[in-house]
Amino acid sequence: MAQQKIGPDRFDYTNSPFALGHQFLDAFIESGLNGPGFDKKDIMQQEKPTQIIILHAALERITWAHIPKKNHFLITLVKIKHEQDYNDRIGCVLDIVYPEIETLVQEIMSLTQPYTPEDVEDILIAAVNIAQLNLKHPHHAVTPGLIPGILKHLKKKRNQNCIPMAKPLLQQLKEPYAASFLYGGEKSLKALDNFLEDSESQDPKIKSLPKGGEHWAELLISQIDKLPKIWYKLLQHAPVANRNSPSTSWLKKAQKLIKDVDDKQFCKYVGNWLSELKRETKRLQDKNAHILKGFVWYCSLVSKPPLQAIGDAVEGGLKKTPQGLVCSKIAAACFYTLEQIGTMEALMQLIRLKMRIKSPWGLEQIQLVIDKLKDRHQMTEEQIQEIAVPQLSKLEYEIAGCRAQIVITGTQTSVQWFNTSGKTQKSVPVQVKKQHPQQLKDIKKVAKDTQTMLVAQKARLERLFLADISWSYSLWQERYLNQSLLSVLTKKLIWLFKKDKRHSCGIYHDGKIIDVNGKQIKWLDKETTVQLWHPIGFSSNEVLKWREFLEHKEIVQPFKQAHREVYIITDAEFTTDTYSNRFAAHIIKQHLLTTLCQQRNWQYDVLGSWDSGDAGVARLKLEKWNLTAEFMIHYSGDDSTSPAGVINYVSTDRVHFVGAEDYVRLCDVPAFIFSEVMRDIDLFVSISSIGNDPQWQDGDHYEYWESYSFGDLSESAAMRKDTLERLIPKLKIADVCSIEGKYLYVKGKIRHYKIHLGSGNILMAPNDQYLCIVQDVIKQRKQGNVFLPFAGDNRLALILSKAFMLAADDKIKDKTILAQIEVNYPHLVPNGT
Predict the structure, then answer these.
(1) Per the database record, which ranges form the DUF4132 domain (predicted)?
(2) Which of 342, 657, 733, 782 is deepest in the core (most CB within 10 A)?
């Protein structure tokens, strides 16, 4: 009976054919456990046949290490010494030793070794076993150096007789290596893919085709044989330049090839292939990415490139998958190509992408190309954005005898269906669902894209307040009033018209521009200039007239304009001179602040547990005015953080404006700039303050919560009050509502209530008991159509919803609300739920 042989890692190699190799590994392991480091010098000095035996032994050990065993890690605890200070510590052999053995394998495999076919088979079987044992742990699936070493061996002419045996085993390694690309398997996978492909066929045509399994590749493969033979030459040349931009030699040959291709045919087919990239849900295979990248570069050489398809390819390439982006290389190639094309149409495509892409890297690259083309065309960013606005898509479709109509309400869209009899119906007709699923999908996409564009253009229009831009009357008509998409918004806005010494504010109505009195402004001509009207600087009487006009005509503005809050410098701010404390000392939710800053073009880096200091700053750059507005943010003293370490609650501090070198006096900031900046900050505070949270009553910072929930009104709340004072008399609950001071008072059937016009929080008479109503309950109730003269003030809509609910408090069925109302009034609360 053979003597039992067990290594220091508890591996039993008594019956192993590679016992000699294991003896070397025993010494290697002991050197690491008992000395300053793992010593592989002796192994690397052995003859190559001996090194191969050591390699097999190492793979045996690695395979064994990955087989699940009861108490496997517990029984391998030994004393190990630090490399530097030799202090004893307890460690796990498998965690420490086996990465060193894998490194040893990598080093042996990197050398040219005289492997036999049996060696190759055994090595690959071991690699497959290790990978299969780690399907749930892809970072352990790859043994470094194995695949490159074996492929290096198989590529040699004298060893090619091993390929038929090796291929099935190599195929089994593709999936685990693909899953482990984040952990070092990507290069091995690429090498494996290329080798398997090269061994499949020597036919140049077949070798030039992309691999299947991707939408765009399948489409290309199905169409290529119908195209002229020159297309195979394009395919063969496309992946030659494996770099970020094409080389001079690649471009030179590409130009010769493109001359023999029909432009229309190129745009049709390549355009379709590129557009298919939006359907991909996995990372592109490496070979396919190089081919498609070449075709993107070809687009820069044709007279009428498929720009829309190039844009689609950017969106597709920057889509997220579980393994990362679909293919950032394709997006980079598209950015290069759009820059090379350089036309206004290419620039418009970049602006479109800027509104649709979310990838930070993608947005950064888009902006870089926009800046280059902007300078080339000598245009400002605002001018570029104006001409890049797309036209409104078709809004009506006939399908299977039914009609679909995309309905636009403000910036929201919906699809209204009409059946074969022409009557409206809520759901999609059955015959459309069954017979025309793709057309149905396309209609929904048009509706969604239209809404996205309207929301983006609404935000751009509102930014015009800070841009202070004017246009000639004819240019304004072309780019704003009559532009099919923008006109949905611009015809509801008030504009300021000037000619010589004359000026008038007007709005589009019934086919003409009228003033606040309803009279047509007849002197508008090519000499007239137009800009977006801002209420600051105009009399309160004129502003009030515009508010009444909009309310009378029931015109809903896309954002507050006539009802816009105006902020002027206070006496306290004249005293502080260079800063304002108007919005200091609020406790706000940082995640909401971050979102609002992004929406309003402010820059803000969140405060987290990683910060050494406790201060942050939200900034708005006003480049045209050489100013930067800064809103100071501090740690609030609350230690709660998100799972990512972001501080949940922060406190606000002063606001100031920074010029080229120093703080600017507030009185020197243009009045409309000051007003708009302070309005943004009021928005930040009013939305993100913990004082708005109806469930915060028992939380920290109670004194602040109470003072904000029922304290003085800010400018935005004061505007809300002004609006409600005109709206309430028109509502069916007018008889039970009144406004006094900072509250909307509501007389319910059971109790009387007062709703704070700033926070929307509620107190109940007679003892000012707090009533908590969460927003989800409000959303479930339908109050009918209540006209509001502007979009965007969700707090106003919430207050009105609460007023309708409380006016009919005897019909409330929510138990949590009833339990609060019935205190001291149980006899008045209806029974049941």
Answers:
(1) 422-602
(2) 657
